[in-house]
Amino acid sequence: MSLLSLSDVTLRFGGVVAVNNVSLEVQQGEVFGLVGPNGAGKSTLFNLISRFYDPAEGSISFNNQNLLKLGSDQVPSQGIARTFQNIELFEHATVLQNLLVGRHRHRKTSMLSEIFFTPKARREERRHREAVERVIDFLDLQPYREKMIAGLPYGVRKVVELGRALASEPKLLLLDEPASGLSVEETQDMAYWIEDIQKQMGITVLMVEHDMGLVSSVCNRVLALNDGKELTTGTPTEVQAHPSVVEAYLGTSGISKT
Amino acid sequence: MDFIQLLASGLANGCVYGLIALGFVLIYKATEAVNFAQGDFMMLGAFVCIGFANDDFMGQGFWIAVPLAILVMAVFGYLFNWGVLRHMFGQSQTSIVILTIALGFILRFIAGTIWSHEPVSLETPFAGQDIRFGGVVLGVDEMLVVVVTIILTACLFVFFSKTKIGVAMQAASQNQLAAYYMGIPVKRIQSLVWGLSGAVAAVAGILFASKGAIDPSAGLLGIKAFAAAAIGGFGSLPGALLGGIIIGIVEPLSSRYGPPGVSQIAPYAILLLVLILRPGGIFSQTQKKKV
Amino acid sequence: MRFVFKTSYDADINWFKHKTQAFWYFLLFGLMMAIPLYFHFLSDPYLLGEITSVMIFAIAAMGLMLLTGHTGLPSLGHATFMALGCYMNVIYLNAGLPWLLAFPLAGLTAGFVGTLIALPVLRLHGVYLALATLAMSILTGDFIVLLEPWTGGISGLAVPDISIFGLEINKYANPYLFYYLVLVVALLIIMAYRNILRAPMGRSFTAVRDSEISAQAMGINLTMTKSSSFFLSATTAGLAGALFGHSAGYVTNETFDVVMSITLLMMIVIGGLGFIHGAFFGAIVFGIIPVAIANGRSLLQTSFGINVHIPGLENGLFAVILIAFILFEPMGLYGRWLKVRTYFELFPFYRKDMFRRQKSYLKTERVQ
Questions:
Q1: Which residue among C199, C214, C218 places its CB closest to the CB of A109?
Q2: Which domains does chain A have, with CATH numbers?
């Protein structure tokens, strides 16, 4: 049974059709990749799932629940966490605080109990801290725990953003270009983490990525997009070999693949 | 008759508000900074002109003082951006808001120290003259305010659509980075916009002081100009002028026909209403940030 | 440099990072408790009154700090909430409520009414919100006049004395008790503030400040978070307003003017945006400047025979200091203190750029 399903989703910005009749099914437990040239509508799909945009047509459902009925701040409570293409961290807070914000969907304390910091609030807080420390261990973030985001290098920020999404203990993780701007070693680490996230934590992953090496090493299935339209879906090797994908990347058909 | 009289004086006041709002919008469009001291720029422009023109001070006469005051304020605006604001690059908008508020305090203090806190009016060649149409008496000063505002607006329109600097300013205001890549010296353009807005403020101040007395706290009128700018939408020059005229006309009419106290409240109430019902003014320009 | 070996989650949750830090704060508390004794021996409580009013402003500044420094919403209208708190307090007291009930109730009323007023403007961004609150602040005086039957309008309103279980507290008759009362209120608010900051709510505030979009993606409801922050902020300002009323003894429509709103904002910027300490540092600077000017003036007069009287000097000087801070020390006095402390902790390994932050283009809210 599919965890996330989009059917016939269309989104227009004025006259531009950013997403055109796209359908996809992400199965429980798989790593699903979205590839395509710049402007193909990959991040727009993410923003549709996060409910930052309203689709003109089509439906999006998660866990048999209609996502279109929810506001963008209610999506995470369903168990969907995401990262952003151009890192959106809380700049003037420490790594630890950033990860703790990821726990927000598990907040059970009320305003009053927090103001008086009742024993229950403390208990909850310990629980949050415990979950966050696990993420810190998992992603090797100990050296940066107390550091402000504003002073961190790019690669670390990417990891922190992944960590913040993981801290929310999601069912589905949306990764928007997790490897962009990372060095070869960092991309390697990212590949291992994504594998662990899938296999050990049992989290389903939907990711946008340009690095075909990473895509073919971690993704079970891939959907190729161009100009907002679906080109093909299949295993990474199938998609890479597909003639329309080659055409989309290289502009003309008939040239042998890269 | 009474109504037309009120309308005329409201129109003249509104033009001054509109001009302050114009300077405010100029800066907001070009630099995304909000100059809360725009009203104090106006006040300072008026006092510089008074300083040059009035017999109590330098006594150089009206026609020499006016261009001098405009020049002084233009240079002042340019230097303020060049010397202070440019160094704040990258700080939050709140800091800029607070900085310009502080600047307003300083300008008020300076003006009060140099020219005292007593109200003074500018000595003009046409003071006290009026024109009569049937039963309606219109002061030359009020007529002049309207005429000058129209001329200035036309000049600005031509400046922005026809001259190279004007087009560059527009480009820089729409996309700083792209303009920079196209070879437009964005920082200098921003300073020039501040200069231009200083000059517009000086004109507003001169008009204000020529039709009535002014004292250093007149800069607080700037807040009514914000209302004007908000009504017109922050990014729109004609909107700012229109907003100013609306505020200017509503004030005397509400004080004449409305219950007591309403005329003081009206401009701000309008500002609040516009912000609540149509945030971003009549021509909305805000949108969600792209991710 | 101190290394704290953390052995439990509580190490990150507790108020104090380590025992030495706790020691310093308890010392400070002891000092604050002892101050009235000093003035009692001098039998000249004038300066004690000044310290009390600095504390009252620090409470109001804490309210604004929560909103502006931690949630990133600028407000140019916090004097309005102080006015609300002050007038409601008097109205409740005159209606016969005991002070212990009237005072917190006044704060809550200010919070509720403030949130009601603010709800429609809360979806506005930076500058628009600043403008809307500024308009609100300007209208405050007019509304106080309009509501004359309850507020006394232009002729003003006398604030009754505080009475706690028969103990009468009046600022003039017993400045020491009033000082302790304000100190207790300030302490309680600091505790609540610290609790908020270490709980999910405080983190959601800073999240909204730093990135609204990403806060939403983490499941934070923007309107809810902003209005909670506004409620808490207005409540705190309302409490400060009520205390201010007791301290002033008499309030009119001109007491809570725009200048007071702006001063509060200036205070927290000078003190250091985003730090509780900043509210206190700002209030202290604001308290010191008039005294310093008065002293400087009398010094000039007695030793040089120069009579300086320049109206508006205080505000002008305050503004100059403010601009200097924004330009050279955007983190405020508390930021400067952090740097100095780090310098000595790391001596001789402090680097100049340790606190430097990346500068970026303003995140625009407009359509490009």
A1: C199
A2: 1-79+171-258 (3.40.50.300), 85-169 (3.40.50.300)
